[in-house]
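User: Hi! I'm working on a homework problem where we have to compare a predicted structure to a textbook description. Could you give me the structure for the chain below?
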Amino acid sequence: MKKLSNNKYTSPPLEKVVFPHEGSILVRQFSELHRNTRPYWHYHPELELVYVNKGRGKRHIGSHLSYFNDGELVLIGSNLPHQGFTERLSDHESETVVQMRPDFLGEEFLQIPEMKHVSALFERAKKGLSFYGESKENIGKKITSLPQKDKFDQVLSLLDILRDLSISQEYSILNANGFSMVAAPQDNDRLNAVLNYVRNNFQQPISIAEISEVVSMTETSFCRYFKKITSKTFTQFLNEYRLVHASKLLAEKEISITEVCFECGFSNYSHFVDQFKSFTGKSPSNYRKSIQQVL
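Assistant: Happy to help. Predicted structure tokens:
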């Protein structure tokens, strides 16, 4: 069996968010040329608002996996493990990240009637929210302009942005049946051991016996546990991870579909095509054509 690490389990690290002196929110903006964009798996109690202006990348939020190809606007709630959204070759113009504590305006502020929609937004964000359509475009512009404002205007603008997000209907819940780091520590450790093992070994066959051994469980107990925590079978999760990677390769690399199939860990081409079409609604060739038309 492949060893995950010297430790029995590997949990995502708690990232300490350092706010500016006399500041209640942290606003950062990165460009493709100036950022060392190496995504890593982590969590923190602060909410995180991310706008990727154009470009492509993977979403990995909790147990949710997907791929975006025309920018991204996402709100991640407290203690929800996630990975960075852009990579060195993602072709994005900029990535703006806003981090805030849930009570950044005071413990009682969310309780006033005028903030009820924002309070509900923060609750929904615990499962991860991805915004699309005009909401992504219009709110994204406001987020992009935040770094140019002083601290006072940043807070005012952020309130305006949160209001827009709270009333938007153009969003998807990403981690509907997933997990956060406020769950039982043992569940967090086990699930993160599985996620890390899949991330490191998905290009190779991974049997139920092998992954069960990673978390020191019997096969039957592991299958029951994984389905309860993620609402997916392990095989389904593993295939989805491979298919998300396939989507990324089809969009970003000029390699044959057969090469994509085997590079993603599938051993049978026909099975890969069937699984990809079921997952995306398109064959790999039609998916690649649709991406090229967008770009």
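For your comparison, note the following. The chain has ten helices and ten strands. The chain has a mean pLDDT of 84. Good luck with the assignment!
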